[in-house]
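Running this now, will post back.
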Amino acid sequence: MNQGLLLRFENLVQLRGTCRQLRALSSRKVCGARWKPVELSAHPVGSLLLHPHLWPKHRLISGALSQCRHLATKEETKKKKKKIPLTKGEVEIRQKMTVEELAQAMGKDIDHIYEVLLYTDINLDSVEPDSILREDHIKMIVQKSGMKYKSAKLKEEKERKNTDAVKRQVVNYPAVLTPRPPVVTILGHVDHGKTTLLDSLRKTQVASMEAGGITQHIGAFIVHMPSGEKITFLDTPGHAAFSAMRARGTNVTDIVILVVAAEDGVMQQTIESIQHAKNSGVPLILAINKCDKPEADPERVKKELLAHDVVCEEFGGDVQAVNISALKGENLMVLAEATVALAEMLELKADATGLVEGTIIESRKDKGKGPLTTAIIQRGTLRKGCVLVAGKTWAKVRFLFNENGEAVDAASPGIPVEIMGWKECPSAGDEILEVESEQRAQEVVAWRTYVEQQEKMKKDLEVIEAKQKEHRLEYEMQQQKLAHLTWRQRKAVLYKANKHLMFSRPKERAEMDENTLSLIVKGDVDGSVEAILNILDSYDCEDECKLDILYFGMGDISENDISLAEAFNGVIFGFSVKANESIKKLADKKGIKIKLHNIIYKLIEDLKDELNSRLPPTVVETTIGEASVLDTFCVTVGKTKIPVAGCRVHKGLLDRKMKFKLIRNRDVIWKGCLSSLKHHKDDVQVIKMGMDCGLSLDKNLEFSIGDEIICYEEKEIQQTTSWDPGF
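Update: finished.
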C-alpha cells in the first residue's frame, strides 16, 4: 500500500459495470492526476491503482471521483438528473431511436442500456447517448429488460387548409367593362413568312435578328394602325419543335391569322396550327403570303384548306382570305382592316379595375435585371408595387417594360408587358394572379409547393408498390423453380448465378451498366428549354444508349454546370446562350464538352452525333476469297499429326494475314487464322483464284471434303442511333 492506494468497489452497479467505462477512466485525467489500472488478474473487477505522488495534496479523492459521470454519488445523481418516469410494461419503439431516447421510453437511465448492450456484439467504445440503435437491438434491449414492445403510431398530419389564389368571378357590368385591343396570334408553317409579315406591319427588322431566319421565341408586340386602333400581335415559332409555344399562343388570343405560302400550300405545321385554333375556339383569318412569286397559286391553297374544315367566304364559309406579299408590303392594310373588323364583331372588352389577372407568354433570365417575364394582361391594371403570383413563385413588380424595352408605369388589359421583380423564373403559360400582400403570396406559393410534393409522393408510392410487386413475383417464380432442390442445392445455384456480381468492385459494376449520355440543357428563355425537353421526351432508343438529363434551366453556362458535368461525365448543350472565356478554359481543362447553338435543328443534329459517338462500333465482315476443300491428309510435325486441307480457290483470293472461317453444311465450325499456307511445297502469303493450295488451321480440326474456306476482313463501322426526333 506504500506504492499506491487500492480502491475497491463492492458491486458492479457502483462501478457502472462495463469495461468501456474502465478504459475511459484509465485514459482520463482527474484533477490533473491520471488513473492507471492494476493488473486485473491480481485484483477483483473494479480495482484501480492511483499513484500517490500524482495526487494533489489539497484535493480529496471524493472530489476527483465526483467529476466523472460514472463515479458520481447517488445524492449528486438525484440533483443532476431529471425525475425518471415509472417503468412501463409496454414500450413504444420506432426506427432510428438513440440510446437516450430508448432509455426515456423505457423509464430507465442510460447506464441500464449500456449494461444490456454487454450481451450484444456492439462495440461499446463507439456507443454514445446520441448513437442510433438498430431496430433488432432495440427490441432485444426491451425484451432483456423484461418488457414488451410495440411500434409507435405515426402522427397523423392535419389536413392543411387550401390557401391558393383563384381568379375573380366574371362580372359583366357594362359600367366596369372598357374596350381593349385584340390579341392576334400569327400561326403557320416554318419559313412561310410570319415574322416578315409582322416586320412589315411594325416597320422593323425582326426577321433579320433571328438565327437562321427562324423564329424560336414568342414575340409580343403592339401595332398602331393609321386609323388609331391598337392590335397586340403574338409571333409564334413555326418549327416543329415549338408545338407547345403555338398551343400557348392560341390560349391567350382572340384572333388567329393563319399564314400559308402560296407556292408551298398546306404543310405539317399549318395543319397543327388549324387544330390549335379549333381547340381554343378562336376565329381564323387566312393570309396567303408570297403571292408576288410566279409559281404562287392562292386558289390551290384555299382548296387544300377545305380538307381541314377551313372554308373561305368565297366558298360559302366564314373565314376571310387575303392575298398578301409580306416582303413587298402588298395588301397589308387590307389584312389589318379585316382583323379590326373581326375584332369589332367580337366586341372585346375587359375589366380594368380590381386585382390583376394575366398569362405568362415567355420567361427568361437577364444578368442585370434578374428573372423577366413577358405577359399579356387580361383583367385589371398592372402597376409598380403590385404583388403577383405565378406557378410556384411570386413577384413584387419593380419595373414594367414595353416591347421596345422602354419603362412604362402601367399596363391595361390586352397590352403585352415585360415584368421585372420575380423571385424565380415562372414557367411560360402560367397564370398570373395579383394578391393583397407579400405574406399572402408566400402562403399561395407554399400551398402550391405542398400540393406538388403530395402529388409527387403519391406517384412515387405507386412506382414503389409496382416495383415491389414485380420483385415479389420474380422471387416467387425463382422459388418455384428451385422448389424441388434441397436448401444446400438452392444455395449453390444462387451463389453461381450471383457470383460475378459479388466479386466485382463498385467501379466495375458501374462500367457494366448501360451506356449513358448525361446532358445539361441551358436555354435563353423557358419556352426554348421546354421545346428541347419535349424533343428529348420522344427519345425511344434506351436499349442503344441511355439518355440522362442531369439539369435544365435558363441563363448562360456557369461554373456549377461545369462541376455537374464533370461529376457525371456529361455534355452541356446551350441554346441561344453564351459561355465566357473563363468558363470555356475551365471546361477545356476538365475535358467537358460545351455545345452552343442558335438554331434548334442544328442542336438536335449535334445531339444525335454525340449519341452516335457513345454507341459501340459494329464489326462488318467483308469476304475476300472463297475456296473448296478437295482432299484431306495429315502431316507429322515432331510427334504431332496436323490435319491439312487441299483446296482450290474459286472466288477472290486467300491472304494469310486475314481471318478465315470453316463452313460445313452452312454452319460455321471455326473462326481464326491459318498456321500455314502452301502452294506445292512453298510457303506463300497469297493464293489467287484458280490456284490450288494446302492449308492448316491454328486449331487441330478434322477437314471434310466439300468444306468451304472463307477468307474475310473485319472492319469496324460506327453505329448511328435509330432515334428520329421528327424533323
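Confidence is low (pLDDT under 50) at residues 1-87, 204-218, 238-242, 505-513. More later if anyone needs it.
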